[in-house]
Amino acid sequence: MKKFEKLTSQVVPLPIENIDTDQIIPARFLKATTREGFGDNLFRDWRFDSNNQPKADFVMNNPTYRGKILVAGKNFGCGSSREHAAWAIQDYGFDVVISSFFADIFKGNALNNGVLPIQVTDEFLQQIFNVVFANPQASLTVDLEAQTVRIDETGESYTFEINPYKKSCLINGYDDIDFILSHKHLIEEFEKNR
Amino acid sequence: MGKTLVEKIWDAHVVKREEGFPDILYIDTHLIHEVTSPQAFDGLRKRGLPVFRPQQTVATADHNVPTLNQHLPIQEELSRYQVDMLTKNTKEFGIELYGLGHPYQGIVHVIGPELGITQPGKTMVCGDSHTSTHGAFGAIAFGIGTSQVEQVFATQCLLQQKPKTMKIEVNGKLAKGVGAKDIILYIISKISAAGGTGYFVEYAGSAIRSLSMEGRMTICNMSIEMGARGGLIAPDQTTFDYVYGREFAPKGEEWDKALAYWKTLYSDEDAQFDAVLEYDAADIQPMITYGTNPGMGIGITEPIPATTAQPESERPSYEKALNYMGFQDSEPLLGKPVDYVFIGSCTNSRIEDLREVASFVQGKKKAEGVEVWIVPGSKQVEAQAKKEGIDKIFEEAGFMLREPGCSACLGMNEDKIPAGKYCVSTSNRNFEGRQGPNARTMLASPLTAAAAAVTGRIVDVRELLN
Ligand code: SF4
């Protein structure tokens, strides 16, 4: 997994609540036997019409909005436990998702795949939307070490929570596998001593 | 303070424990199948890693295999592709595969125990939620997601938070016609489909002790249906006798050593559980579900509970469930006509289940208009049934004995219950659409299912037993 550096980026705003995993990646794309390519189908039915033509009014098809940060309404990622939702977001190129609430399983899946879910208050979320809609070029700065997200234009900053183990994984570019493998000698020792 | 059985096994498998971090838990056995493994193999390739301990990994094809004509190429394209991928991946990474055509092939949770791979004191995982089945032997066994499958491939370990523990005691004697499936459906109906969330459940008490290994597997199998991570039963002579002599069971001196250890596997008298529940076996009658989650079960002679008896916030979903099933609240299920009977799945497809059904239907015929599918859990179960002449009994009764697989348990292959039809099923989930779009599932024991097959209705099997 790549290391999570301090990140300053424009954002893609999606002010919709209860975005479920079926919207993030529709079930018909789950038959694949690899993890790649899910980004092409991220928000498939919002992005494309039935003739596979991009829908002009969807924010991801609007070149004004771009960046590595997705900002979405409350209760993001509810629905099924499919890990494909996190794969799709990561594969599309988002490193951070900001919302005022995340479904539990999605949060875990995102962290396991190197995507940082940041939970902020409803008010702070609204501030982000306000600033970004007024100026699409506005950027946010995410500092994982300090656990802060800042609206660069206004200088307002929010301190978020994260599990210390997961934080160290992201900062060091470890995922669970890298973490366990860094203790490989202990595993081998354990096997010898049984 | 003493330890619970879960703590004893857990602690014996902790490779590293550090404050603020999840435990690194060593996994003895990893079972895999065609549906949840491909992305995990893919992940390994991307990282350039081998499978760390391929000899501790066993593969089978079960979820979407056809249950007729298994000697022919699989018709359905996606299923064939996934099964082919499994063959290719297991070959590339050096993993033993009991695929289609192999005498050991079958549902992953049926073949583990019957091959002696499942043993007391082990940690076992599989990318399938009903891995809890193996807990019947006094093992810690639970289902995992695809990222975790990759984790176990790469390291033979999992990062895990130690779970909370719950003890469920069932004491007393079961009435005739009442079995393990009725016990577990009864428990889930009492504590609800979410009542076990976050716990590992240990089943205890004289009624549990009196069960065969097959019955214990049925109980542990459905732990997940109350939301529990897993379920287990302390091993005893019944367990040791079952494991002894099986293909991968320890032999000779190894056996003696293993047995001595297995005898230490019980919850200490003074062990503390986070929750304890107790039930009386005498209160349990044959059970059946009327709704769309496994917690919606009743005794066969009871009426469907009234909507007004439900908490107000739950009434809309309760009504939706009854509506889906085509039932009225407060009406009895007894006498309702049945279209399909499915006897199979990792809950009830073992040789004992088939024997029980056969001895009940011997000399009887299935009712007109009912379709009866019997899907053995494995090639070995199928062979044993044929050896004992059980297949003949089924044939005479008009039951169809098919080939092993998950089949109508989840309808991933062709075995689907048609829309609107009623199926009495020995499987474990009655979710909307589980057995096919708009199929209506009623979960019950093999005996109750067999009684529905020969009468064409929901009946109290106790009245048909002499
Ligand atoms: S029989 Fe059903 S529950 Fe069991 S492993 Fe197969 S699909 Fe899962």
- The percent range for strand residues of chain A is 15-25%
CATH topology of chain A: Aconitase, domain 4
Low-confidence stretches of chain B: none
Low-confidence stretches of chain A: none
Distance between the termini of chain A: 32 Å
Strand numbers in spatial order across the main sheet of chain B: 5-4-3-6-7
Q: SS-based structural class of chain B?
A: alpha/beta
CATH class of the largest domain in chain B: Alpha Beta
**Bound ligands, named by name, code or SMILES:** iron/sulfur cluster
Question: For this structure, what is the CATH homologous superfamily of the largest domain in chain B?
Answer: Aconitase, domain 3
Whole-number total of structural domains of chain B: 3
| CATH architectural group of chain A | Alpha-Beta Barrel
Query: How confident overall, as mean pLDDT of chain B?
Result: 96
Range of helix content of chain B: 25-40%
Domains counted in the coordinates of chain A: how many? Answer: 1
EC number (chain B): 4.2.1.33
Keywords (chain B): 4Fe-4S, Amino-acid biosynthesis, Branched-chain amino acid biosynthesis, Iron, Iron-sulfur, Leucine biosynthesis, Lyase, Metal-binding
Subunit structure (chain B): Heterodimer of LeuC and LeuD.
Catalytic activity (chain B): (2R,3S)-3-isopropylmalate = (2S)-2-isopropylmalate
Helices and strands in order, then pairings?
The complex is a heterodimer of chains A (194) and B (466).
Chain A: E1 7-14, H1 21-24, H2 44-47, E2 69-72, H3 84-92, E3 96-99, H4 104-112, E4 116-119, H5 122-134, E5 139-143, E6 148-151, E7 156-159, H6 164-172, H7 176-181, H8 184-192
Parallel strand pairs in A: 1-2, 2-3, 3-4
Antiparallel strand pairs in A: 1-5, 5-6, 6-7
Chain B: H1 5-11, E1 14-16, E2 23-26, E3 29-32, H2 38-47, E4 57-60, H3 77-93, E5 96-98, H4 108-114, E6 123-126, E7 140-143, H5 146-155, E8 157-160, E9 164-171, H6 180-191, E10 199-204, H7 206-209, H8 213-221, E11 230-232, H9 237-243, H10 252-262, E12 275-280, E13 287-289, E14 297-299, H11 315-325, E15 340-343, H12 351-361, E16 371-374, H13 379-387, H14 390-397, E17 400-401, E18 422-425, E19 440-443, H15 446-455
Parallel strand pairs in B: 3-4, 3-6, 4-5, 6-7, 9-10, 9-12, 10-11, 15-16, 15-18, 16-17, 18-19
Antiparallel strand pairs in B: 1-2, 2-8, 13-14
Helix pairs in contact in B: 2-5, 6-8, 12-14, 12-15
Bound molecules: iron/sulfur cluster.
